[in-house]
Amino acid sequence: MSQADLKQFTLEEVKKHNDSRSCWIVIHDIVYDVTKFLEEHPGGEEVLLEQAGSFGTEPFEDVGHSTDARELMKDFVIGEIVDADKEAPLKSSSTTHPSSSTSESSWASWLIPITIAIAAALVYRLVVSSNSS
């Protein structure tokens, strides 16, 4: 589906999908229905639910998602934001007010270490269970 063919959504429509029953997130003005991905998200469903029904571009970019993650996103595209509601371009860190930037992305600084810790715990559990068999 080309971007010209995408269904148009207002931000008001997106805001109605803000919980685990229906979770939509807008990243770079593209609307994603990530409801079915909540349990599979490597960072946990809470991370997605924090952004549900709103723009998640900045937190998404702050984490530094892989090429594979960006490719997987294509499976969840349902439309795009109407022109009137499009997100303002992200400001560079030199022009962003320090206090707002810090508070908005503080959770993101914990995401990578937590993801690594969870992955390490799962690998450890797998190794221990295979050794006991």
Task: Offer a quick outline of the entry.
The protein is of the alpha/beta class. The chain has 6 helices and 6 strands, in the order βαβββαβααβαα.
Chain-wise SSE layout:
Elements (H helix, E strand, L loop, with lengths): L7 E2 L1 H5 L2 E2 L2 E6 L2 E4 L11 H7 L2 E2 L1 H7 L3 H7 L3 E5 L16 H8 L2 H25 L1
Parallel strand pairs: 1-6, 3-5
Antiparallel strand pairs: 2-3, 3-4, 4-6
Notable traits:
6 strands; alpha/beta
Q: Give the biggest beta sheet.
A: 6 strands, mixed
The oligomeric state is single chain
- Tally the helices: what do you get? 6
For the termini, the CA-CA separation is 48 Å
Task: Specify Rg, calculated over alpha carbons.
Answer: 17 Å
Give the H and E element order.
EHEEEHEHHEHH
Average residue pLDDT: 83
* Overall outline: elongated
- Estimated helix fraction: 40-55%
**Which stretches of 5+ consecutive residues score pLDDT under 50?**
93-104
Report the strand count: 6
Note the beta-strand portion. Answer: 15-25%
Class per helix and strand makeup: alpha/beta
